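look at this record:
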Amino acid sequence: MKENAVITIISITIIVLNMMMIIVQVIKNVIMVATMAEVTTVTMAVITAEVTAVTMAVVMAEVTAVTMAEVTAAVMAEVTAVTMAVVMAVTTAVVKDVAAVGAGCFNLINN
């Protein structure tokens, strides 16, 4: 009878230890799933922030470059047009003055 009681106690102890091992495994799995979810969330947040920052930097650089090129071209075209108009006006005035002086000299010589 003592032997049966010892065997029963040993069997119950083994069953309890097995159950404890199962509980530990379940807790370990829950911790691993939670850890993986947290790591994934943080990683995705960091990656998204980095991609957004880089994308915005590239877009801003490109927009700035295109805008500056367009503004520079427009300003240069306007400056060139105004400069050419002034040069033409001055040249025309000088040519008229020279022509008038030439005509005056011609009249003096012919009179």
